[in-house]
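check this one:
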Amino acid sequence: MASLKDYKKKLKSIRNTRKITRTMEMVSAAKAKKTVDRVEASTPYSVKLRELMDSLSGGGSVDHWLVREAEKVERSALLVVTANRGLCGGYNTNVANLAERWIRAEQAEGRAVAVSMIGKKGTARFRFRKIPVAKSYAHIDDRPSFRDAEELADGFLRGFRDGEYQRVMVAVTRYQSAATQRPALVQLLPIVPPAPQDGSVGAKAGGGAKAGGGAKAGGGAKAGGGARAGATEFIFEPDPRRILEDLLPFSVKHALYRLLVEAAAGEQVHRRVAMKLATDNAAELIRFYTGKYNRERQATITQQIMEIVSGAEALG
């Protein structure tokens, strides 16, 4: 049976742990607010980019190597976005599980997969499971920049153009709201035209990487369609095809940047929730062991009183 000294040590240890988790919760809450603000700030740009691309294409199909589907996919590239740090609940595990299932499905179909990994946690997991990782990026933290996304996208664009792989997918945590972040597989290349929608610009705004590598841009297609429905016609200089030549690669880079920003927001939200649960659990343990400590202390005091009374009676 544990002594009073053991209970005091345990309570001290739990209280110290609660201080740490509470501090991490507050830090994650502040970081989550900043990352969510970055997601919301990128939404209008994503919407307008989608509208511009839709206007330039005239609502029709675009004959460009970035939107051209391969007749047969023999090799795909997969970018898995995880975190450099843990203590964020199932954030890393959920994305890694999704990526592994997709890799197994592709291999079952006889297609090769070249895996690129963002984050130390995902790299360590794939190394432990002996899943080959072609490239690993540990320098992208919870504040990804557009330059980071541009460097990654340039590599994928070169590989796609040279026929090294016929499809580029991204396994990432999508931010939908403060209460909902889900792992998803997003096709970055070739660019998938947006499906007609009757919804408003919502959580998918600027996110939908399925359209222009993320350009489901929040119902941007609908907005673009609305522009065509009016009588206004625009004159582009240079011609729309020339503009699209530059805009399509940029849309892929922006889509990847949007995905990285959403992943960073999801990481911080997951960590805040995990640290909140850890703090609550620590408080519950403190109440539990404080009760046991008090009962043991009371029993010890009672035992000592009984010994004193017994000794006094024996002497009397």
Q: What stands out?
A: Confidence is low (pLDDT under 50) at residues 197-231. Strands lie at 75-81, 112-118, 135-137, 167-177, 180-189. The chain has six helices and five strands.
